[in-house]
Description:
Elements: E1 9-14, H1 22-35, E2 40-45, H2 47-50, H3 57-74, E3 82-85, H4 91-100, H5 105-109, H6 112-120, H7 127-141, E4 147-149, H8 155-172, E5 180-182, H9 217-225, H10 242-255, H11 259-265, H12 271-297, H13 300-329
Parallel strand pairs: 1-2, 2-3, 4-5
Helix pairs in contact: 3-12, 4-7, 4-13, 7-8, 9-12, 10-12
This protein binds ligand 1.
Amino acid sequence: MDTTEKRKVILSGMQPTGGLHIGHLTGALRNWVELQDEYECYYTIVDLHAITVRQEPAKLRRWTLDLAATFLAVGIDPERSHIFVQSHVPEHTQLAWVLNCFTGMGECSRMTQFKDKSQKFPENVNVGLFAYPVLMAADILLYQADLVPVGADQKQHLELTRNLAQRFNHLYSETFKVPEPYIPKIGAKIMNLQDPTKKMSKSDENQSGVLFLVDDDAQTINKIKRAVTDSGNEILFREDKPGISNLITLYHIATGKTIQQIEADFAGKGYGEFKKAVAESVVEFLRPFKERYKEIRANEDYLRNVLIQGAEQARQVASRTLQKVYKKVGFVQL
Length: 334
Ligand code: TYM
């Protein structure tokens, strides 16, 4: 019996803009893997989003395949989930155009990611960067997604997506599913190890505060041992201890131990000992991923086949939604 029709739908995306870090894993990928059992999942490599900041073409090509290999290496199963590249499914840009015409300028200019990126790249504040969240809304709404597993930084974009879906449904009758964000309770915002008041980000100038998934073991250990910690010497998960709380989060993810258990285990022990334990656990946690990644990345034919199959499956669903939208807004159907 084919039950796929009845399963609820997940869509999420990630930019192919170079080395992924541990935040991508804890905020998003970890949940992507888990949710495969229960949901029909669409996972996309958003290359169209990536060019909102300047990219070197050869690197963008390489990073796109790197990301496909990462998805597979963390455990996304192409037999159950659909892995595809955004630019291979033209319906994303087609729906984005329509949604652009229903989005206020003010709505886009309020987005914190837009504000951050226009500050970071003041020489290239382009229209694509401004309209970025509308393309993201199109990514989600094309698949009638019920849930969107993301880190905390994407919450605002999800709110815009929901508003656009509701607005369109209200104007033209029920067309889009209104999606819910799915943000993990722990790990939704991993902070930079050198500045734990700032989100870990791959474009951070201070790379020694970013734990890249492909760092070698010595680099991972060094970065964790040199992490900035808070005054005092207690291992407690507390708002006024952002450095230690960040490390507790990583230890929790790597070992599966609860926060309370971690606090109890390290009561009376110092920061040095704790950091050593965190470093070792993160190295062990990443080891199987790194091994699988190397193997899968070496097989480009396989990667391309996964992406061909994923794009075909995605287009079937995306084109249905787009046709509905085109019809509703009044485009002549031939
Ligand atoms: P991107 O590529 O910046 O990040 C991918 C995912 O990783 C999460 N993330 C983090 N989680 C915890 N701690 C961190 N330090 C951290 N850094 C990143 C992000 O929240 C995200 O879930 N706009 C999106 C990509 C996108 C998308 C979509 C996502 C495009 N279309 C449709 C969902 C649905 C972005 O820039 O993610």
